Amino acid sequence: FSRRWCVLNDGVLSYYETNLSSTPNGEIKMGEIVCVAVNPPDTHGYESTFEIYTQSERLYLFAADSPEEAREWVKSITKCFLPLKAEELLSRDFDRIGRLQYKGGRSLERTAVGWFSLYKTKLCMYLEEGDTVEVIHLKKLSELSPSTRERDVLVLVAQGRTTYILAERKLDFSGWENAIQKASSSTGDTLSEQQLTGSDVPVLVHKCIDHISQFGMASEGIYRKSGQNSKTTSLLEALKKDARRVVLKEEEHHVDNVSDTLKRFFRGLEEGVFGEHCQDWLNVAGKVALAPPISL
């Protein structure tokens, strides 16, 4: 990194050698920006860095002295290129924000332009055809199909609705794709951090129970018999990596291996089967009633 004096004025971000310099080393016009991304701490050796992507496929990397200063710069820059009607996207501390081409909504034939922001595991969208911000819960996707060499498009299916995000530019699209895939994957050892169904059940749990219900109800000692250790370990790793892409088959996945995978998953949960939102109810259950119950 080289320390520069930066000035944001009249739709242009200029950077100078020092605060006494009269001629800028370079400048970025706000109208050329297509994406701004906030990096995790220490990504580039600094606590707070952010990236600016432009229409001409250039990437600028900036570092600030503190997270607060970086966030202030990011919001100020974003306000300059984001349409006024899409400013609701600024209400959250997003990780990535910008302009993308998409197909979806009422018409899958026409390519439109939308403004997107990624906030933790939520993809917020202000689409050309709408007048409000829509939200996709990425951990609840029923399908996520990444781009390929033959097809530069990211397909997201949630609650029966399909959204196609198109690669207008390679550089920022690659960043969006990686960030969305990461946000939609399982990230820890609590129930809420897993890939989820529409009813908030971990996909891993749903698939295992569904498989056992189909092929194991008549199996003697189901849930009591242990599966083959290597196959159980391999299946659990695959499900925790991306449960959506795992297809359980009767001829490939013996019910004892699947039931053992499910038990091992539950044993490894940090907060147990009952999450933080259940703690008040669990505490109440353990309290001694001070008054006798009312009988009718």
Automatic annotation (TrEMBL):
Name a Pfam family for this protein: RhoGAP
Matching InterPro entries, A to Z? Arf-Rho-GAP_ANK-PH_domain (IPR052227), PH-like_dom_sf (IPR011993), PH_domain (IPR001849), Rho_GTPase_activation_prot (IPR008936), RhoGAP_dom (IPR000198)
Top-rank taxon, per record: Eukaryota
The molecular function GO annotations come to:
GTPase activator activity
- What keywords are annotated for this sequence in UniProt? GTPase activation
Is the keyword Nucleus in the record? no
Q: Give GO terms for biological process.
A: signal transduction
Domain spans labelled PH: 1-82
Q: Which residues form the Rho-GAP domain?
A: 189-296
- What SUPFAM superfamilies does UniProt report for this protein, alphabetically? GTPase activation domain, GAP (SSF48350), PH domain-like (SSF50729)
Protein name per Swiss-Prot or TrEMBL: ArfGAP with RhoGAP domain, ankyrin repeat and PH domain 2
Q: What organism is listed for this UniProt entry? A: Xenopus tropicalis (Western clawed frog)
